[in-house]
Amino acid sequence: MTSTVLRSLSFACAPLLLLAACGDDPAGEGTVNVTVYGEAFIEEGIPASEMSDGWAITFDTFEVTVRDVRVGGVAFDDPAPLEIATPTDGAGQVIATAPVREGDHENASFVIEAVDLTGSATKEGDTKTFAWTFEHPVAYDGCETTTAVTDGGTSTFQITVHADHFFYDSLVAEEPALLFQPLADADTDSDGVITQAELEAAGIGALDPGNESVDNLWEWLLAQTATLGHVDGEGHCDAAAL
Amino acid sequence: MEVAVVVAPIEGSATTDLGYEVEVESVTVALRDVVFTVAGEVHAENRRWPSLFVSPAYAHPGHYQGGDVTGELPGTHLVQWDAEGGQALGQATLIEGTYDAGNFTFERGAAGSPIAGHSARLTGTATRDGVTTPFAVTIDSPEDRTLVGAPFEASVGEDAGTIRFHFSATDPLEGDSLFDGVDFAAIAQDGAATIGPDDGATEDAYNAIRREFQTHDHFRFTLEAP
Questions:
Q1: Which of A70, B5, B84, B195 gives the lowest tally of CB atoms within 10 Å of its CB?
Q2: Whole-angstrom distance, CA of residue B91 vs CA of residue B75
Q3: Residue among B47, B59, B149 whose CB faces A213 most closely
Q4: Whether the Cβ atoms of residue A50 and residue A178 lie closer than 8 Å to each other
Q5: B27 phi and psi angles, rounded to 5 deg
Q6: pTM (predicted TM-score)
Q7: For residues B29 and B167, what is the distance between their CA atoms, to the nearest angstrom?
C-alpha cells in the first residue's frame, strides 16, 4: 500500500519539478516582530478626566511576563519580563522575532504569566501608592486579529495591555465606569499605601462581578487581570486563567 | 417553532448564613430580550475566582461567552413571581434542538408599573430566634446589564410544550442564599427592613443582594412536556 501511495505521489509531483522540489512549500516567509505595548495609560498615566471619580493614576513601573507566543503556527522564544511603563512614542517594545510563513495568520495566542506594577493615584491633594504583583497566568488565544506576512517583509503582532481595566467597576458591563475610590477606601490604616492585605480585607461593595464569586478587592483585581491582554490595540481574545 | 413561556411559582424559601429563615413572597423584575442558547456560559458549580475559575472568559467586560442564540422571546417584560405563578410572557421562537442556557437583560420598570424606575422588587419575611422581619428590597441594575447563563437544559422537538421561568431564593446548585450576609433585624426600622439603592444605612445589604440577584444562580428555565 505504502509503495503504491508513494508512486502515486511521485507521479503527481512530476509536472511540478521544474518549479520547485516536490513537497517543498512554495510560499515564502517574512519576519514577525512581537511587541508589547501598554498604551498611553501605562506610559503616561490615566488622567483624572478619564476616570469616573476624579482620581489620576500614574504607573512608576509596569512589568509584564509574557510566554508561549504563537503567531502563524510559529512558537516564539519566551522573553524576559518586560517593563512597559517606559515611553515608546506609541511603538511598544519588541520582545521576540521569528520567521513566519507568508500569508494572513489568525488565532494567535500568548500567555501573560505575571504582572508587577507600582504607582500612585492622586485626587484633591490626597495620594495613594500601590505595589502589587499578580502571579496568576492567563492564557489568551483565538485573538481577533490578522497578522499579514509577506515574502521578505516585516510584520508586527502587538500584545496590548489595557491597564485601565484594573479600575473597571464591572466584569460584565459593556461600558464600565473607571473607579479608583473603592481601592483608595481600602487603605484603612490611612498610611497612603494600599496593600494586598488591605485589599483582601475589603469587600467589593457596588462593584459588579457578574456570575463570578469575588469576595474582596484583591480577588477583584485578580479577576481583572484576565481582561488586560488584547492584540493590536483593541482586538479581543478568549482568555482563561491557568 | 413557537413555545409558550410561563412564569413558574416562586421558590422563595431560603436559609441564610446568618441563620434567617427567609420566605420571599413576591418578585417583580423588569427585563427584556430573553434568548435561549446552545453552549456558552452556564451556571455550574465551582465558579469561584481565582482558584476555581475554569470557564473561559472573553478578555473584555461585557463579552461573556453567551453561547449561540437559537431561540428568543424578544421585547420588554414585567415578570412577576408569586405563590401561584402562571403569568404568560408570550410565545418564544426556538429552533429545534438541545438547549443549555437562557440570557436576558435587566430593564427599568416603565412609568405606572409597580416598579417604575427600578429593575426589581422583592418582598417577604426573614425569621430568626422567633422574630419575623418583613422586608422589601428594591434593585436598580446598571443600564444594559445582561444576565448570562441561567440554566435551560432542554431538548426542543416538534411538541415542545411550555417553557417555565423559575426564580429561586436558594441557589439550587450551591445551596447558598440570595440573602447571605444580610442581617435583617439589624437594619430593620420599626420592625421592617427596607433595602434599596441610595440608602447609606442599608448599603452593604443592598450591594450584597444586588450582586447575587444579578447572577445566574437564582433563575432557570425548564421545558414542560405538552
A1: B84
A2: 11
A3: B47
A4: yes
A5: -135, 125
A6: 0.85
A7: 10
Residue A86: phi and psi, rounded to 5, are: -70, 130
What CA–CA distance (Å, rounded) separates A79 from A94?
A: 10
Label the pairing between strands A193-194 and B193-195.
unpaired
A27: three-class secondary structure by DSSP:
coil
Cβ–Cβ gap B59/A168 under 8 Å: no
**Residue B131 bridge partners (DSSP):** B128
The predicted structure's pLDDT at residue B44: 52
Shortest Cα distance from A195 to chain B (angstroms)? 19
Asked whether the predicted pLDDT for residue A147 surpasses 90, the reply is: yes
Residue A25 pLDDT grade (very low, low, confident, very high; cuts 50, 70, 90): low
Q: Do B214 and A208 touch (CB under 8 A)?
A: yes
B6-37 confidence digits (pLDDT tens): 999 999 999 999 999 999 999 999 999 999 99
CB proximity list for B22: less than 8 A, separation 6 or greater: B12, B13, B14, B15, B16, B124, B125, B126, B127, B169, B177, B178, B179
What the block records as the C-alpha cell of A180 is 479608583
Residues B85 and B9: beta-carbon distance below 8 Å: yes
Cβ of A226 within 8 Å of Cβ of B59? The answer is yes
ipTM of the complex: 0.84
Residue B82 grid coordinates: 408569586
Chain A residues with CB under 8 Å of B142 CB are 170, 173, 208
- Cβ–Cβ below 8 Å for B53 and A214: no
Tens-place pLDDT, residues A51-76: 999 999 999 999 999 999 999 999 99
pLDDT of residue A5 exceeding 80? no
Where residue A41 falls (left for φ over 0; alpha for ψ -120 to 50; beta otherwise) is alpha
Is residue B124 within 8 Å of B24, Cβ to Cβ?
yes
Write down the pLDDT at residue B68: 86
